[in-house]
Batch of 2 targets.
Target 1
Amino acid sequence: MLVTGATGFLGRRLVEKLFERGYWVRGLDRNLSGDQGKTAGGAEIVYGDVGDLASLRPAFQDIDVVVHAAADTSGSEEGTQRTTIHGTKNVIDLCREFRVSKLIYISSLAVYGVADYAKSMVVTEEASLERYPERRGFYGGWGRS
């Protein structure tokens, strides 16, 4: 299993839980600082930047499941375009090329209109989305803040 964003806030915890449950995990990290090949939370960590298609190819070798948790959280338009949008396209393209059997995409809670929810409401995939995404910036929305 490949986890993109494996050393990020969510990815790091996901890798630990997957490893605890007996899964073999390869984690993708764009800022290795000499850690390539080492393990983190039980995962083999390899270099790859979702915004750079060529750097991703080695990580997809012998992978049947991809959990895509990488995203730019800076809130900048450039980061969103390169990592969140173009990077997701790269991951999808490589899943097709390498015939990955399952792709699990993790988005952000920021897309939901939580300000409109009743206290203690359970958020599901059917929950209403943000009414004014253009006010949320590029990370959680779809336009200028």
Target 2
Amino acid sequence: MKHSRAALAALIAALIAWSGLAAAEGESLDSLFGDDAKTAASKPGQAWRGYLQGELARTTGDPAHWSRADMLADLTREGRFSEKVRWKIGGRLSYDAAYDRSSFYPQPVRQDQRAEFMLRENYLDIDAGDWDWRIGRQHIVWGEMVGLFFADVVSAKDQRQFILPEFDYIRIPQWAARAEYFKDDVHSELIWIPYASYDNIGKPGGEFYPLTAIPGRPLNVLADEQPAHSLRNSNLGVRLGTIKNGWDVAGFAYRSHDSAPVFVFDPSIAAYRLQHDPITQVGATLAKDLGSVVLKSEAVYTRGRRYFTNDPAVASGLVRQNTFNYVVGLEFALPADINLNVEVYDNVTLDRDPKLFFAAHEAGTGMLLKRNFGDSVVAQALYIRSLNRNDWMFAPSVKWGFQKNWGLTVGLDIFDGPPTGAFGRFRNRDRIFSDLRYSF
């Protein structure tokens, strides 16, 4: 309770500080929140930007319980030291009463999720002629499809709410040095990550914790064994792209310690160790505007990652496999202000170990249907399902912009499938939610 009160006090202090800074610079409330908000945002250093949000979520599974009662502040500010050197700072602070006032979750889960401060993007941009440098904590997004991650291999991710929030919320920035070179239609990118961020999967007993107890193996999970921060453990990547005749094509190679941990069972202590495999990923993306239809595709080959096996002779419960994942998507602009995204994907395991838990081809499809009703209401429905088995999730929602800068969203998250399925494992986590956001 002491920590949650401190977090709430920090949130209030941050808002007061933000208001004080705005007032000190002579900014009116109208210029920050009203008609001049866009103008203020276009002048770096003139105003804080971001949003304040409150969210409630009620899980309807047995037993029903409150799974979100979150208050969040996300603040960003930009400026420049000179014409060739710019800066950006940002942070996010949240407090969730569902993990403070309720005893539903285990104590480690409550401590992990009731209050949090995260540095968001904090970097310097340096213009060096044909080269642009960005140094600091930043998002590096190499692919972006609907609903699932494929070529977005550099970003670490906050998995504590599965894939339900917006991707901008899920992504965790990396501490990196990035150099970009632009020449005619060619875009080159080099990245070095000396101090890597890793996925946040939460604690056992969390709402969307990725592992459940296996018969004969207690769910005893040790602390995350993240690689030491050293030059030897740096992540390195290169990406080359071009646009020819309307085709936006890029290829990349990325060497890293996997941001997602693997659960390595240690029979000597009857516990799981969280480890991060050294992996190599090579991939490509393409996009093409075909008039009323936009084609997108991503593909990634991954070498060195380990996966669960049901072979009792493997004490760790894991075997190393190479995989090739690809997705093809079409985005349609339809009449009546309707937008439809359809995707088909396949996760292919090369030279598959016969005792893996999943098939050599794990295919699936996704669909996002969105419609605008005037200027203030947007309804959408996301549906993702496996083509190998009856395993799916469905997430409909409606957002109402009832006043300038204000938005209210209500929706459902529904899961079904076998207990070992990507979505069926959360079939007891169906929920109804609502969030209220004020953007500035």
